[in-house]
Design goal:
Structural class: alpha/beta
Mean pLDDT: 88
Radius of gyration: 29 Å
Low-confidence stretches: 2-43
Helix content: 25-40%
Shape: globular
Strand order of the largest sheet: 6-3-7-10-8-9
Length: about 280
């Protein structure tokens, strides 16, 4: 071997030792710590080859819009909520303050709490959930905007959560569904009815709340004056969870355990409808 060849061989040997010292391997790609190949699923999620795929959730791929009725700050902003908006069958106030129990637990707070609980349960089932308001301290949005949010989301189903304010002797819950009005709701009236009956059954079974004694037939009511329904192009219903002015219903509303029970019943209802 010539002197020049000997020097070159020595340099190559030193480079190889340096690579091993810095964490390299003498046989690149053949060591036991070589990176395992990845498999990429259709939704773009990567996992190691051979690793079991995560089990599908019952509401994967579904979009649900929850509209907690009213807002905790509405009473502070009459200039906003009293503005008249067109709901196709009439002009109505942008929104209202809602009602309250006799000792001051507001409908807006009840609606917001149930909506938060329901959203958590639906997300755990795989659904994408959108709410029409971000807190319980603001004003609005208008009933027209609430419908538009569900439409823009292309929701598979939507619900507006409420509690009624009626005479003290009236009690029980009911579901409100749309009727055809020559408007955007017409194509989804049948699906909204199916959703309404499914939710009615789930609430009755899951909470034990009786059907309304004063509105509708077997807790089912149909209306043409609600902007949130008239302007909806996705299946949508209103839930009147009971009467806040009735002592028995109000006691349930003020119970966190009962509100959780209601949210669980609604989540099951959506799963049944969307399966």
């Amino acid at each position: 071997m010539s002197r020049r060849s000997a020097v070159a061989a020595a340099v190559l040997a030193l480079i190889g030792l340096g690579a091993v010292a810095c964490g390299g391997t003498a046989g690149a790609g053949t060591g036991s710590d070589a990176t395992a190949p990845l498999e990429v699923s259709k939704n773009g999620t990567a996992r190691a080859a051979g690793e079991a795929a995560a089990p599908a959730k019952p509401l994967d791929g579904k979009v649900i819009v929850i509209d907690p009725g009213h807002n905790g700050g509405n009473y502070k902003h009459p200039e906003i909520i009293n503005k008249q908006v067109n709901v196709l069958t009439k002009w109505k106030a942008c929104d209202t303050t809602g009602t309250a129990t006799n000792d001051g637990y507001s409908e807006a707070a009840f609606n917001w709490d149930v909506a938060q609980r329901l959203a958590k349960l639906l997300r755990a089932k795989g659904a994408t959930v959108k709410l029409t308001r971000a807190n319980n301290t603001g004003a609005g949005p208008c009933i027209t905007k609430r419908a538009a949010i569900g439409n823009a989301a292309k929701a598979d189903a939507a619900i507006s959560i409420h509690a009624d304010g009626s005479a003290a002797g009236n009690h029980g819950f009911h579901v409100i569904m749309p009727k055809k009005i020559n408007g955007p709701v017409d194509p989804v009236v049948a699906d909204s009815r199916k959703l309404g009956i499914t939710i009615r059954n789930a609430v009755h079974t899951g909470t034990g709340m009786p059907y309304s004694t004063y509105i509708g037939s077997k807790a089912l009511d149909y209306r043409t004056d609600l902007g949130g329904l008239n302007l909806s192009s996705v299946p949508k219903i209103f839930l009147e969870s009971g009467n806040m002015r009735n002592a028995g219903d109000a006691a349930k509303f003020k119970s966190a355990a009962w509100r959780q029970k209601l949210a669980a019943a609604l989540a099951q209802g959506f799963q049944t409808y969307l399966k």
